Amino acid sequence: MSEPARSPSSLELDLPEGALVVLVGPSGSGKSTFARKHFLATEIISSDFCRGLVGDDESDQTASKDAFDVLRLVTEKRLGAGRLTVVDATSVRSEHRAALLALATRHRAPAVAIVFDLPADMCFERNELRRDRGVLRQVVREQVADLRQGLDGLLTEGFRQAYVLSSAEQVDVATVRRTGPVDSRR
Questions:
Q1: Distance (Å, rounded) from C-alpha 11 to C-alpha 171?
Q2: Is the confidence at residue 4, as pLDDT, over 80?
Q3: How far is it, in rounded angstroms, from Cα 167 to Cα 29?
Q4: What are phi and psi of 86, to 5 degrees?
Q5: Which of 150, 77, 151, 62 is nearest to 109 (CA)?
Q6: Pick from 124, 119, 106: nearest CA to 185
Q7: Residue 184 above 50 pLDDT?
Q8: Is 7 inside a domain boundary?
Q9: pLDDT averaged over every residue in the chain
Q10: Once rounded to an integer, what is the mean pLDDT over residues 32-61?
Q11: Does residue 154 lie within any of the structural domains?
Q12: Which CATH number characterizes residue 78's domain?
């Protein structure tokens, strides 16, 4: 199995039906915008939305433990029903992805990572424009470092495919193509 390749300037992302799609990237990298553009609202399980469900505030980090319990529960139910499920959380550390990959394995769902490895300065700028849920610059810096440290090991973690988008242009031109069901029971 080869390591994830850097994406070309024009890119078609092939996603099998029933897959777990994990959006990986620091705050401000464009994961949520990408998700809204390419997936149904019902397919997206956002950690921010789950924080809002349990804490009435999407930016309330004290609600994160309960929010991720909800995120994993909904993810498990969707994968159990064979539905494409998109997790929108930073997921920049392998230990954050491990629980999601375990759910995919349990339900024999192929796991795909879409990585947003954009320049740190771009993430800082975008994050500072957020009125509702900005993240401290130092936190974004740590997320960028964590992402880059674990980037080469994504396929060894258990992802079937890992797409790496390394510029805003690549994110803008990327398209999602849903492929037929994959026999993941082999």
A1: 9
A2: no
A3: 10
A4: -110, 120
A5: 77
A6: 106
A7: no
A8: no
A9: 86
A10: 86
A11: yes
A12: 3.40.50.300
Q: What is the pLDDT of residues 112-153, one digit of tens each?
A: 999 999 998 898 888 777 666 556 788 888 988 999 988 888
What's the pLDDT score for residue 132? 63
Q: Which two tokens stand for residue 23?
A: 């959006």
Token pair 């909904």 in the structure block, residue: 74
How many separate domains does the chain show?
1
The domain of 114 spans: 12-179
Residue 1 lies in a domain: no
Residue 174 to residue 12: CA distance in whole angstroms: 6
**Is residue 133, in this structure, part of any structural domain at all?**
yes
21-39: b (≥16 Cβ within 10 Å) or e: bbbbbbbbbbbbebbeebb
Beta-carbon count within 10 A of 186 CB = 5
Q: Does pLDDT of 87 surpass 80?
A: yes
Share of the chain above pLDDT 70, in %: 84
114, 35 contact by CB (below 8 A): no
Q: What is the pLDDT of residues 174-183, one digit of tens each?
A: 999 999 765 4
